[in-house]
Specification:
Its EC number is 3.4.11.2. With 847 residues, the protein is α+β, with helices and mostly antiparallel strands. It is built from 27 helices and 30 strands. The strands form 8 sheets. It has a 7-stranded mixed β-sheet with strand order 5-8-3-2-11-14-13, with no helix packed on it. A 5-stranded mixed β-sheet has the order 16-17-18-20-19, covered by helices on one side. Bound molecules: (3S)-3,7-diaminoheptanoic acid and zinc ion.
Length: 847
């Protein structure tokens, strides 16, 4: 398949009014009968009928209006089936096909496959073509009627159930949808069930389907679903539109979850939770992803994407909505900080290297390679900027207009922006650059103070990214507030709208010189640089009224401590002392301030400043700073550790989780000086997985986790999700010099079921997450990872390609590491039969 270009978009030359599928399920030889009601779009311009579908489809029959076409008019290649125009009626006709497929052999988990005896599907982006011949593109939307035949007790598909008897179930989805939203599930499953009454009074049956025995871990997912349904009604006025909503948990899944119409399929790690097996972070993720997939029903399903270049139309918006949801349910300040941390860790990193691309790319070879932090997280940031620029009321009007105007459409970014233009009268031509241009702008701020007038001068610049050498200025909303010398806010937040490369803004009639609180709420995904002394940063950490900016002041202090040495470190240590004693601050906020920037983040910062990160030095500096903090504040920390216990039975609510997060942050610091004593005790007494895992990570770091690992294995050896954590923590938290050896060792275990994406990610993702371990100077991390990418690519190209991003930062390291990383990548590139997925990733990385 050649490179796909946005500019080449053409509508499909046929209209499809209904799809009828009839599947007889079997591990091998599943029979798929498809009937497609078609009509030429323009009967006067006859066109060949080209259907997607590759060599995996064993074609058994093909008819047009019941007649087999002349075989001379039917051709097949590796990717599609073509029926010549000459063989097609000019009027509406029905195409029927019958194919056989083998779900059991499907290790790529795309299309129809088996996961632990459960038949399930994953069709986004282009999986449906592995089930039957079809126009597998998101702008071809139609109603589906599905018949499933199997002896398995539970048979599910999209839409509403029509009948279910004697091993035959029929489903009807009257909402037109593209093929990527098709799904079926067949298996021995049990449901946790509930009901939801919509605001217009319709009764919806809700089910979370799991394997027998897992019901007691599905309750939180159900609660989260009900909250999501209520929230989307309250905040966006969006009601659910079928009689049933089904969620199914499966163990083998390439990503987190999938928003198939009325039948969301989930990675079991994002459904199953109990206090003894899931951490607070797991609970928060489950709540957010259940919401995300549910919210797609409107932003993704009712309004879908015209083509895959528009992916961020549904993903950016749905991430933005799930972020709002979590902010409303939990702490908005904490959620914003967490989201910025994710953005920096994943998206800034991506933007800085060879894989940089805009939220709306204009070319790809393999679309599955573009489900990225840029499309998702930056896509959400762009919507946040838009909302900030137009204001909350106009945002709400624009969204109402979007739903009214485009319901039932396959839409584009242009449609989305037009809605905002029409709702607000603004011209968004310039703003659109955020969608089309890659790279993270660097925003420099300079201050001038004269006669009671404060002048802020901003200059923006963006480094070239692959294929985009020149970077014109963008529209940047810069939220600014002013803090007086006594710590009071003297000017509330004002949004400066920067449109030029360099621009000046003034604040007048000020008494004393204020301290500027800039980029409040992280109002734009940029890297802000400003000359600020540590004392002023410490002042902001103590007094800023904007929680994000307050946290950011601490972050900057920490980074300066980590990259500039002793004196800077003392300023940070003092400031942290003040914060620790601030009883008024939310414990979760204090925990976030107390957690040092990760090694990856430090490396990204150094690279942005033009220096070469040294992974071992970064690791050492970070450990050293943590130790100094612990020594300086031993009493305060010990007091907090004892105070932040959570009485009573475990509850995953935000307030309890906040206290645990502070206690855990403190534990990490104290472990630098107590030899791991507290962690040892905590591991033994804790009854919840949050504290046990936190303690375990500390013990692994200190090289004294042996007994604890044995305990956990004995207790949870048969629980895949817990064992994934068990694998991951040993590699991720290992002392860098040991990380590869530990990974190598774990990979020989019988329960290293590497074809399971979660298990593979636990081990290889764990290593990639151990910055100094992965970048070991001898190249062992690169070689080990490359070996496994090669192996995985033959089984599951999506997972291999995704994991290859472990290498995406390679150009920023020293020549020796660069040479070793490049050699590993070239070894992969040289492989015969490499998938399109991995080939595209690797060639972009070594371009
Ligand atoms: N839309 C899916 C992702 C599909 C990924 C395909 N490789 C999940 C989500 O974003 O909600
Ligand atoms: Zn999504």
């Amino acid at each position: 398949q050649p490179v796909q270009h946005l500019a080449d978009y053409r509508p499909w030359p046929f209209l499809l009014s209904e799809t009828r599928l009839d599947l007889t399920l079997a591990a091998r030889g599943t029979i798929v009968r498809a009937a497609l009601d078609l009509a030429p779009r323009d009967p006067d311009a006859p066109s060949d009928l080209v259907l997607d579908g590759g060599a995996g489809l064993q074609l058994r029959a093909l008819t047009i209006d019941g007649q087999a076409p002349d075989p001379a008019h039917v051709t097949r290649d590796d990717e599609r089936l073509t029926i010549a125009a000459a063989a097609l009626p000019r009027a509406p006709f029905t195409l029927e096909t019958e194919v056989a497929i083998d779900p059991e052999d499907n290790t790529a988990f795309e299309g129809l496959y088996l996961s632990g005896g459960i038949f399930c599907t994953q069709c986004e982006a282009e999986g449906f073509r592995h089930i039957t011949f079809y126009p597998d593109r998101p702008d071809v939307m139609t109603v589906f009627r599905v018949t499933l035949r199997s002896d398995l007790p539970v048979l599910l598909s999209n839409g509403n159930p029509v009948s279910d008897a004697g091993g035959v179930a029929e489903w009807h989805d009257h909402w037109p949808k593209p093929s990527y939203l098709f799904a079926l599930v067949a298996g021995d499953l049990v449901a946790v069930s509930d009901r939801f009454t919509t605001r217009s009074g319709r009764e919806i049956a809700l089910n979370v389907w799991v394997r027998p025995g897992d019901q007691d871990r599905a309750g939180f997912a159900m609660e989260s679903l009900i909250k999501s349904m209520r929230w989307d009604e309250d905040v966006y006025g969006r009601e659910y539109d079928l009689d049933v909503f089904n969620i199914v948990a499966v163990d083998d899944f390439n990503m987190g979850a999938m928003e198939n119409k009325g039948l969301n399929i989930f990675n079991s790690k994002l459904v199953l939770a109990s206090p003894d097996t899931a951490t607070d972070t797991d609970y928060e993720r489950i709540e957010a992803v259940i919401a995300h997939e549910y919210f797609h029903n409107w932003t993704g399903n009712r309004i879908t994407c015209r083509d895959w270049f528009q992916l961020c139309l549904k993903e950016g918006l749905t991430v933005f909505r799930d972020q709002q949801f979590t902010s409303d349910l939990r702490s908005a300040a904490v959620k914003r900080i967490e989201d910025v941390q994710t953005l920096r860790a994943l998206q800034f990193r991506e933007d800085q290297g060879p894989l940089a691309h805009p939220p709306r790319p204009d070319r790809y070879e393999e679309i599955n390679n573009f489900y990225t932090a840029t499309v998702y997280e930056k896509g959400a940031e762009v919507i946040g900027m838009l909302k900030r620029l137009v204001g909350d009321a106009a945002y709400a009007r624009a969204l109402d207009l979007y739903f009214a105007r485009h319901d039932g459409d396959a839409a584009t970014i242009e449609d989305w922006l037009k809605v905002f233009e029409d709702a607000t009268g603004r011209d968004l031509t310039h703003f659109k650059r955020w969608y089309t241009d890659a790279g993270t702008p660097v925003l420099e701020m300079a201050e001038d103070w004269q006669d009671g007038i404060l002048t802020l001068t901003f200059a923006q610049s963006t480094k070239p990214t692959p294929g985009q050498p020149d970077k014109p200025a963008r529209v940047i909303p810069i939220a600014v507030g002013l803090i007086g010398p006594d710590g009071d806010e003297v000017a509330p937040t004002r949004v400066l709208e920067m449109t030029e490369a360099r621009q000046t803004f003034t604040f007048e009639a000020l008494g004393a010189r204020p301290v500027v609180s800039a980029l409040r709420g992280f109002s734009a995904p940029v890297m802000l640089t400003r000359q600020l002394d540590d004392a002023t940063r410490a002042f902001l950490l103590a007094h800023d009224t904007d929680p994000f900016a307050r946290w950011e002041a601490g972050r900057e202090l920490a980074l300066s401590a980590l990259t500039r040495g002793d004196e800077a470190a003392q300023a940070y240590i003092d400031a942290i002392g003040a914060l620790l004693g601030d009883e008024a601050a939310d414990p979760a906020f204090r925990a976030l301030c107390l957690t040092l920037p990760g090694e990856e983040e430090i490396a990204t910062r150094l690279a942005a400043q033009g220096s070469t990160p040294d992974p071992d030095a970064i690791h050492a500096a970070r450990g050293d700073l943590a130790r100094r903090i612990a020594l300086a504040h031993q009493d305060l920390l010990t007091g907090l550790y004892d105070a932040m216990t959570v009485p009573g039975a475990y509850s995953p609510d935000a307030a309890s989780a906040a206290r645990r997060s502070l206690r855990i942050a403190v534990l990490g610091l104290l472990a630098r000086i107590d030899g791991g004593e507290r962690a040892q005790i905590l591991f033994g007494v804790a009854s919840n997985m949050t504290e046990r895992m936190a303690a375990l990570a500390v013990l692994v770091r200190l090289g004294r986790a042996g007994p604890a690992l044995k305990v956990l294995e004995a207790e949870f050896g048969d629980n895949r999700l817990v064992m994934d954590k068990w694998f991951a923590v040993q590699v991720m938290a290992a002392p860098p010099g040991r990380a590869v050896a530990v990974a190598r060792d774990l990979a020989t275990r019988r329960d290293f079921d590497w074809k399971n994406p979660n298990r593979f990610r636990a081990l290889l993702g764990g290593l990639a997450g151990n910055h100094a371990g992965f970048h070991a100077a001898d190249g062992a991390g690169y070689d080990f990872t490359a070996d496994w990418l090669i192996r995985m690519d033959a089984a599951n190209p999506q997972i291999a390609a995704r994991m290859s991003t472990a290498f995406e930062t390679w150009p920023r390291y020293n020549p020796d590491r660069r040479a070793r990383a490049r050699a590993a990548l070239e070894r992969i590139a040289a492989l015969e039969g490499l998938s399109r997925n991995t080939r595209e990733m690797v060639s972009r990385m070594i371009a």
